[in-house]
Amino acid sequence: MNNCISYSPRASLAIVGVNIQQMGIWDMIGQQVKIQQKTVTHSPLQKLQDAFINIMAGGRGIVEVNQRVKPDASLSCAFGRQRCADQSGVSTTLNACQAENVVQMRQAMAAIYQRYGAGYCHDYGRRCQLLDIDMSGMPAGRQGEGSEKGYFAKQKNKRGRQLGRVYATLYDEIVSERLYDGKTQLNRCLPELVAETETVLNLNPGFRQQTILRIDGGGGNDADINHLLMRRYQLLVKVTHWKRVEKLAATVAVWETDPKDPRRQAGWVQEPFAYDQPTRQLAVRCQTKKGTWQTAILVFNLADDQLSWLNQQGKRPYAPPTDPIWRAVYAYDLRGGGVETAIKGSKQGLGIIKRNKKSFHAQEMLLLLGQLAYNVTAWVRNGLASCEARLRQLGMLRMVRDAFHIAGMLAFNAEGHIVQISLNQAHHLAAAFIDAFACFLARDGTVANLRQI
Question: Which end of the chain is more exposed for a tag (fewer CB within 10 A), N or C?
Answer without folding.
Answer: C
